[in-house]
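Entry:
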Amino acid sequence: MPLALLALAVGAFGIGTTEFVMMGLLPDVADDLHISIPTAGHLVSAYALGVVIGAPLLAAVTARMSRRTVLIGLMVLFVVGNALSAFAPDHHWLLAARFLSGLPHGAFFGVGAVVATGMVAPERKARSVSLMFLGLTVANIAGVPVATLMGQHLGWRATFLGVSAIGVAAIASLALLIPHDHTHASASGLRGELAALKSLPVWLALGTTVAGFGALFAAYSYITPMLTDSAGYAETSVTLLLALFGVGATIGNLLGGRLADHAMRGTLFGGLASLVAILALFPVLMSAQWSAALGVALLGTAAFVTGSPLQLMVMEKASAAPSLASSANQAAFNLANAGGAWIGGLALAAGFGTTSPATAGAALAVLGLAVAGTAYAVDRRRVAPRDGRERLVASHVPQHAEALHR
């Protein structure tokens, strides 16, 4: 694999760390800024809102720019947002800085996926995307725990300065390792990128992301009370168990990338079906400590097996203008985060039990399977396969195809 993928992984590591570290720092931030923890929780929402707005917006307005330049510019914005977070004088300024920090998130992963697949042979495209996402999953194992400890001992502002330093390292890596010849701009420009979103298969792929990862977050958002109230773990053990989730996610991400290069849709269906089974078994898995630990790891594995095939499917369906659609998939991921947590919370508030969010998640995963099945049926109608094999994903538009869009 090209060394340039390391640069994308470094950027993903920084983004993953700043996205999830706020959950662990909420009490420290609330105490320092003299606000309640629920009010501090708005900082998580502000970041997610930045991702949802920034992903399609920044990908669209930079459609004709060199993708290498776009990636570096996005990381500069990331560094600025986190540095402003570190020096925010009050809650309102920190809220604005967190929103700014979230803006480049989705576009970086979206454009980065297009660049990653353009640097490898067709049979290794899914693996290239999974290696970029590796930075995100490793952030859950190492980045978030270390950044949380830093914030607890040196102050939460030190955490965001540390994340800014990671961003600076990512900028240097991108400038040194990403080659110019693989980062051409989309010839179709903004109009072509927007036209790609008119495709029904693109929206079905995005819908699969929302339902599939909504299933994950319906359960994961409430994993702490499941582990303490149902499995009997002490609260001090939860951090280690969440790192175990990160290990499972890393395994699933790498496994999904390798399998998707052989059968993209089969990997997606298999991952979603596994997610249904694991979430449906959560009430049983949470009845003992050893099985609860296993369940947490398996949840991460099953969910992230679907990451690479979902990203590639969106890019395939919008192959004439993949940057915007690929970035929109990251916005869909964050909608899944918010929507899944809301649905899981409804089940919990209704009094269905501590593990009821996982059952709600299983239902969402079934919905994801249904949407993916619908997408498959639509593809079967639209395209008659020549040899019965799955079509490989195009990382960019061939020259003769680009000419048609000019």
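Residues 1-185 form a domain with the Growth Hormone; Chain: A; fold (CATH 1.20.1250.20).
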